Every structure is written in C-alpha cells, then in structure tokens.
C-alpha cells in the first residue's frame, strides 16, 4: 500500500508534513512516499493513493481530514468530497504535455530504481555511446533554447565550449530563480533532481567538462537539501565521479549557494559569486563560453534547459522539435501565480495563447473580478492588457508584442491594480538589486522612481512622461546587462497599455 504525500516546499508550507504525520499515526502497513508536487498548487497538500485502478488523488487535504478519509475508505479510492478522481485523468493535468516535468510528482525523488523505470538514464547512456559532435548535433537539431529568458540555442553554446582549447572546462547550472512568480526550478529540483544531474552530465560529456556547479539560491533550503542528497546517491551508484556509469568519462558536481542577490541570476555575476567574489556583472567579451568560471570555457544553462536535455537524447531531436511553433520548439514550463484561482505549473508546447493559460488553466482571478493585467517574464517583464490575450506564448510572438517570455512566469492582477505603482516598483526593484557597476542602471533606476513619483502626484505630467521615456531609452541602450536594460520594459508597457493610470489623477480603483 503506497500513499504519496508531497515533500515539496510549497506543499509543506500548507501543511503536508502534518498530513503525512497524521496518516502515519492512523494508517498501519502503508508506505508513505514524499514525492514532488504535481504542480496543481491549489489542491495542495494533494494526497495520492495507489489503487488497482491507478493513483487516486485527494486534495486539498488537512491533518483534520484524515479520519473522514479513512472512514470513506480512501485507501482503496473511496468517494469523499476531497476526491479528485484518478490523478492522470484530472483535466488540468491530463491536457498538459509534460516532457521536462514528466516524472515530477510521479516518482520518489530519491529512488534511482523509479527514475530508471520512468525513462531516466536512457539519454545519458546513449550520450556515452556517441561522439561529442553527435551529442551537440542532436541538441542543436532539437531546437532547444535557453529557458532562462534569453532563448539562445543551447547547441550553439555547447559547440563553442567544445571547440575551445583548455585543460579544464565547466558546466554551470544557474538555479538562482529570483523572478517573482517563478518556481519551476525549485519544483523540479525538489521533485526530480536526477533529471537535472543527468542533463548536466550529458552536457559535460558533450563539451569535455569534468566539473559542474549548481548555483542555487539560499531561499530554497529544501531544494538544496534534496539536490545534495541526490548527488550523494548518484556518487554511490557510480554515476558521478571518476567513471560515469563505468565509462571513460569523469564528472563531479557541487552546489554553490547564493546569498540572495537578484543580479547574480545574470550569468557573469553568478560566475563571480561562485568564485567567491562580489556578484558584479562582467563586461563582454570575452564570453563565458571562452573565458568563464576561473577563466576557463564554461557552459551556462538554467535548470529547465539542462533538464530538457535527457528527453532530447532519449527520444531524439525529431520528437522534441515536433512540438512548438516557428523557432520556438519543444515545451515551456509556465508558472501561474498572483491573483489566480488555479496557480501552479503548466507545461505545454510553445504556441499556447495567454488567454488559454490565464483563463483556461488559471481559471481567472482568485478574487473573482476581471483580470486587468498580466505580467509575463518576471519583475522585468511586460504588462499585457486583456485585449492582447490572444498573443502566442513563444519567443518571437512575445517579442513582437513588446514583451518577453523570460523564465515562463505569469502573474495575474485584477481590477484593483494600479499600473503606475507597478511601474514604480520595477524602477525601485532595479535600484535595490543593481550591482552598481554601470551608471544607466545604478542612477537611472533611482531617477526613474523619482520621475514616476512626480507623475503620480500630478506634477508636470506630460513633461515627466516624456522624460521617463527618454530615461528608459538610455537604460535600455546603455546598461551593461539585462538588469538595467530590461527594467524599462514593464514601465513602458504599463504606460502604453494602461495610459489612464499615468494621468496624475486620483486612481478610480
């Protein structure tokens, strides 16, 4: 008898540990597995019971519900008000196309046997049998692009590192998930850490690296603990170390914990932090692929990019690139948050519309009032109005609409939101988080806050709006990295799409 109770930190935050303890004290003879969350966060803690018909889900469950669940024979899938039916038939989950997240919530995160039973290590074993160029060609052909926001083709980056002459090369995973409304990196690490380890190992074999680092934010203590335990298990299994699965390839993996600086999500600032220095952006060139960590050629990808690689290698490039639209191939892991009825993880092929995501999967606002704005791409992403909800969620369409896909975070706001205040937040966020190296970002963001404050107060509104747009142009063109370069995006989109909030008049809300 197997009972699954998520050990994911989101589920724990709403009582999953108490639910697991209550089940353990009242149900004898059962094995309680702390799996990852399925991503339907409005149903957490979601308890699953393995039955003859399949896994049956109940949620959201509290410790106080266990007695009534037992009375309803939930161990054999009995009827109960909290019963969601067979997990695999829950429409919200069944209609997704899970590739990167296919094992998250399904398996025990620390069971290599379950990992392999669900397709794990197939991609790595294939990679071991191929040449470096063959692996890189497969990844390039798949169309896999960086899921951290830039969308740069992963295969091209790998090819550059592979071709660089050096006695040492590195694989760095950027897991400094600092964007508001994003949590996919954390959920994958906590629910299926071996997928990330496998992806990094494949990358290492492809480019000739022997050492990898995962830069993981300190605000994710459960993820840090989970990943370290998974690394230890991989070492004991003979996966990591001097001989990867008995091959001639060597690869080792270490975790470096960040101290909470948003700008360290930028790849060169992350490298500085890993090296033990202050997290300040480096000038480019040289590119990290040529002179990266400790001056050596370095592959830098984020969690979702590297965790997509095992599926590409296991199923082939053709299967992966069959999904998506245009140059945006494969799937994207969208994260729904904010004032939303059904928040969580939705993995779909590129090309799904904003409307399908926020009204279909998200179910609209939690408050029940109409959606007024949606911010896509983190705190530096654009704000979209309802008239733009037919926009396709892919790299090119989002760029054409004046936005960016970023890490896939989607945050909803209802009619109570004031977009002038949101624009102010973008500038103030930049002022606080800037590394301070370049003037447009460091000073521009501070002047931006002051200018928006004048607009809100109704002081020379037209002149200050023009000044604000000029300032945004300088920040976009003159900033050293995306921190200052993208801060104008939420500001300008708010001004363009919600001009009524920038009149200096008392808000109607």
From TrEMBL:
The keyword Nucleus does not apply. Residues 420-465 form the NADH-ubiquinone oxidoreductase 51kDa subunit iron-sulphur binding domain. The keyword Iron applies. Keywords: 4Fe-4S, Iron, Iron-sulfur, Metal-binding. Gene3D superfamilies: 3.10.20.600, 6.10.250.1450, NADH-ubiquinone oxidoreductase 51kDa subunit, NADH-ubiquinone oxidoreductase 51kDa subunit, iron-sulphur binding domain. InterPro entries: NADH-UbQ_OxRdtase_51kDa_CS, Nuo51_FMN-bd, Nuo51_FMN-bd_sf, Nuop51_4Fe4S-bd, Nuop51_4Fe4S-bd_sf. GO terms for molecular function: 4 iron, 4 sulfur cluster binding; FMN binding; metal ion binding; NADH dehydrogenase (ubiquinone) activity. Belongs to the complex I 51 kDa subunit family. This is Unannotated protein. The lineage of its organism: unclassified sequences, metagenomes, ecological metagenomes.
């Amino acid at each position: 008898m197997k009972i699954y109770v998520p050990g994911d930190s989101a589920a724990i935050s709403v009582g999953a540990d108490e639910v697991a303890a209550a089940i353990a004290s009242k149900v004898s003879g059962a094995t309680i597995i702390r799996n990852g969350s399925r991503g339907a966060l409005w149903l957490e803690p979601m308890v699953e019971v393995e039955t003859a018909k399949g896994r049956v889900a109940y949620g959201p469950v509290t410790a106080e519900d266990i007695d009534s669940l037992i009375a309803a024979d939930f161990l054999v899938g009995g009827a109960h008000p909290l019963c969601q039916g067979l997990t695999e038939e829950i429409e919200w989950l069944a209609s997704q196309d899970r590739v990167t997240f296919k094992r998250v919530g399904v398996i025990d995160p620390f069971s290599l046997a379950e990992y392999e039973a669900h397709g794990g290590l197939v991609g790595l074993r294939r990679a071991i049998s191929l040449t470096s160029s063959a692996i890189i060609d497969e990844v390039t052909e798949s169309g896999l692009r960086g899921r951290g926001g830039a969308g740069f083709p992963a295969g091209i980056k790998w090819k550059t590192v592979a071709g660089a002459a050096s006695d040492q090369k590195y694989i760095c995973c950027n897991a400094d998930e600092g964007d508001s409304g994003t949590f996919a990196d954390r959920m994958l690490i906590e629910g299926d850490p071996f997928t990330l380890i496998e992806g990094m190992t494949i990358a290492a074999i492809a480019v000739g690296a022997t050492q990898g680092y995962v830069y993981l934010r300190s605000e994710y203590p459960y993820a840090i603990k989970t990943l370290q335990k998974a690394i230890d298990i991989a070492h004991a299994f003979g996966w990591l170390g001097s001989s990867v699965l008995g091959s001639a390839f060597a690869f080792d993996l270490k975790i470096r914990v960040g101290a909470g600086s948003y700008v360290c999500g930028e790849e060169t600032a992350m490298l500085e932090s890993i090296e033990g220095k202050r997290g300040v952006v480096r000038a480019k060139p040289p590119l990290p692929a040529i002179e990266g960590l400790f001056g050596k050629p370095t592959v830098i990808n984020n969690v979702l990019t590297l965790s997509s690689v095992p599926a590409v290698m296991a199923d082939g490039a053709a299967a992966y690139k069959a999904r998506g639209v245009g140059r945006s191939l494969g799937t994207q892991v969208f994260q729904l948050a904010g004032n939303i009825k059904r928040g969580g993880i939705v993995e779909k092929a590129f090309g799904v519309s904003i409307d399908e995501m926020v009204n279909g999967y998200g179910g609209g606002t939690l408050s029940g009032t109409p959606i007024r704005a949606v911010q896509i791409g983190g705190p530096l992403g654009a704000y979209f109005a309802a008239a733009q909800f037919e926009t396709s969620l892919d790299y090119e369409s989002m760029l054409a609409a004046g936005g960016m896909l970023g890490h896939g975070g989607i945050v909803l706001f209802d009619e109570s939101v004031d977009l002038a205040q949101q624009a102010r937040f973008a500038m103030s966020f930049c002022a606080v988080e800037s590394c301070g190296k370049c003037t447009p970002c460091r000073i521009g963001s501070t002047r931006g806050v002051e200018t928006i404050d004048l607009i809100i107060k109704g002081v020379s509104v037209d002149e200050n709006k023009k000044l604000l747009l000029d300032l945004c142009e300088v920040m976009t063109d003159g900033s050293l990295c995306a921190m200052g370069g993208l801060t104008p995006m939420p500001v300008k989109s708010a001004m363009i799409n919600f001009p009524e909030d920038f009149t200096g008049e008392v808000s109607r809300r």
